[in-house]
Model the fold of this input.
Amino acid sequence: MARVLVIGVGQIGSELGPALVEQGHEVVLADRLPPEETAGWDVLQKGLGADGVRKRWHRLDVSDTPALTGLLRELRPDVTYHLAALLSATGEKNPDLCWRINVDTTREVISTLSSFNAAVAPRLVVPSSIAAFGPLPGEEIPAVTPDLYPMMPTSMYGITKVAGELLGAYAAAKQNVDFRGLRFPGLLNTAPPGGGSSDFANMMYFAAAAGKHEVEVFCRPDTRIPFMYMPDAVKAIIEVAMAPAARLSRRTYNVAAMSPSAADIAAALRARVGRFDVRYVPDFRQAILDSWPRALEDSPARADWDWKPTWDLESMTDDLLAQLGWNKPA
Ligand SMILES: NC(=O)c1ccc[n+]([C@@H]2O[C@H](COP(=O)([O-])OP(=O)(O)OC[C@H]3O[C@@H](n4cnc5c(N)ncnc54)[C@H](O)[C@@H]3O)[C@@H](O)[C@H]2O)c1
Done:
């Protein structure tokens, strides 16, 4: 059993928190919002019950440095999952705050964990993203992008993700903090997503499950980026956190599961719910999506800590529609 702190309990944290409790860990959940106001409240309640959530909850604004470092000193967690962040679309609207929340607070978490001078280095997990990649000048990004490819992100969010990866590698090498990270694809579950450019897919699932026959999305039909179903994302983040340090050949890994286009997702939904018309109206997020890999090459994660996804587009679509309460016609 480990003492675990999850900071930022949104789309991922609302499923990760209950999964860690289920595994027998002592878990504290921290967010700037009260639990009832977070996007994942329904998911959290399902996993832990309302009282189970509230008794583990700690109100924390990570930009309040004394409060952040104070909580870390009080808990001295064995494993910290720092998930509080501004995502790509929100970050593009407020780039300074994006840097402050995504990078400065990661550096503060690292220096506080480092100051413990612990005999066993405390673990810190900070997810990165496909947004850490971007095309080299005058080139297209490789359709299947490997772990080690020059990182030239075009969004402030992507820049903060590269900075976080580098701070983490430095912390692992020099600061006695056992950092691990993952470059996640767009993630799907029943929790409303938190302002990413991959949200068009979540919007399609929510609309189809609600029985709507039409939806408008902000991308082109041929937009193709990697996606992952949340049970696989939770499995991956726990596996990388728990992997023996001796097996790690790097500190941040690509993880992949599926790479459907927006039109493929619409077709998978249409095959189940019947008429489902999608109006494609690209906005500023299209340029962000176009700068991301079409697919990720994840053989290092597979070799180093036995990563293997369970869900593909078809199985995810069946399960997610059911989880969202869609009633299949008899
Ligand atoms: N969801 C995805 O598709 C996806 C894909 C790739 C990477 N990631 C990464 O995973 C991590 C978690 O993402 P998510 O989708 O769960 O995000 P989310 O937006 O759903 O949740 C983030 C949570 O952090 C909280 N938060 C924001 N600012 C805070 C602050 N100042 N103090 C304390 N809490 C604050 C929010 O209230 C929210 O509950 C992020 O680092 C994100 O970049 C997510």
